[in-house]
Amino acid sequence: MKYRTLAGEKVSVLGFGCMRFPTTTQNAADIDADKAGEMLRFAAENGVNYFDTAYVYHGGESESFIGKALKDYREKINFATKCPTWQIKCEEDFERILNEQLESLQTDYIDFYLMHALDRERFNNIVKKFNLIDKLNKAKADGKIRHIGFSFHDSLDAFKEIVDANPAWEFCQIQLNYINLEYQAGIAGLEYAHKKGLDVIIMEPLLGGKLANPSEQVRKTLSDEKTPVEWAMDFLWNRKEISLLLSGMGTMEQIEANIGYADKAQVGMLTKENLDMLLHTKEIFDTMALVPCTKCAYCMPCPFGLDIPKTFEAYNATASLGMEKAKSIYSEIKTKADKCKKCKKCEKVCPQSIPISGTMTKIAEVFK
Ligand code: SF4
Ligand code: SF4
Q: How remote is the CA of residue 224 from the centroid of ligand 2, in Å?
């Protein structure tokens, strides 16, 4: 395992995103404790020392699960978790939730605490309105959290505003991969944060898994020297501004492979030819993706039973994998796109700002 610095701490370049554990049922809250516990412990034994969870992951069960599963490793690992900003309705909510999180994680302190999924609207109407910066600073002074940061989904301008608005930020977490170079904060945001002294964590390095199993057209633009996952990760580890990548690993095979890649990670590891190749891959990819869904599942559950990420997966497959494969994915979905009632509950929380309800109408037509 290679290590870099995050807010002055030594962290593994690979962080374990704790939102895609195997489950025993379709319900995200039913984490398969045996399999997921083994995965977490294997990662900790093999040098991963950054575990990223959130109050809302796995239907609210992720924190307590990792708190229990990693109890014996607490001294040698970092816990990162997040304040569900959209659930803060008054000043008191901050501390109540933080205390609950400490209890779930079975710890006296959280190493890295993030304001979850900030955008301009949440920053102004929640963080500022409820004095959450003061609350964060107080929690840090009280020893309940060690480092303060935020995760982000909005435009580059909003990103810069949020970075500049709070001198207490020590790090931030942004979405970046070799396809989404100018999306949300993007490369420009990465460089801006670094210039302003913030360390940066990357989420969605594989674009919700899409870069792990790309279509044949995309795959053949990548050299066989490395796997598609390794190319995607190396593109990020190549940059000096990046402290670590988060990977929401859901199988032991993924963990083993990613640890192997992380072992070779170095700043400046890619050549100009490698970077030109990835740029070409991006050009091909861009012509094929229909909906930029990363399968984060923040939109779930849909009150009318739609499986939103899977429906988008099927739709995207019409372009990338062909109609036959797309139909086979769509056939596995119980509640089809035409059952969308346009309530737009999902659209309020989608970090990718996808016009979900309108797209469902289109999808229903495509698969009719
Ligand atoms: S708009 Fe459609 S997909 Fe979104 S939550 Fe409502 S019914 Fe579900
Ligand atoms: S539709 Fe949006 S919120 Fe739902 S899984 Fe996709 S990216 Fe996430």
A: 31
- Helical packing angle, 228-237 and 272-286, nearest 10°: 120
Which one of 360, 362, 363 would you pick to mutate in the ligand 1 pocket, going by the greatest count of ligand atoms within 8 A of its CB? Answer: 360
For residue 210, the ligand closest to its alpha carbon is: 2
Query: How does pLDDT run across 192-233, given as a tens digit for each residue?
Result: 999 999 999 999 999 888 899 888 888 999 999 999 999 999
Rounded to two decimals, the pTM is 0.82
What's the rounded Cα separation, in Å, for the pair 252 and 137? 38
CA of 286 to the centre of ligand 1 (A): 26
DSSP letter assigned to residue 2:
-
Nearest Cα neighbor of 86 from 96, 94, 78 is 94
- Long-range contact set of residues 25-29: C-beta below 8 Å, sequence gap at least 24: 27/59, 28/58, 28/59, 28/61, 28/297, 28/300, 29/58, 29/59, 29/60, 29/61
> DSSP per residue over 152-211, as a string?
E-S-HHHHHHHHHH-TT--EEEEE--SS-SSSTTHHHHHHHHHHTT-EEEEE-TTTTTTT
Domain ranges of the chain: 3-286, 308-366
Measure the CA–CA gap between 171 and 356, rounded to whole angstroms.
31
Q: 3-286 has which CATH code?
A: 3.20.20.100
Q: H or E segment at 31?
A: none
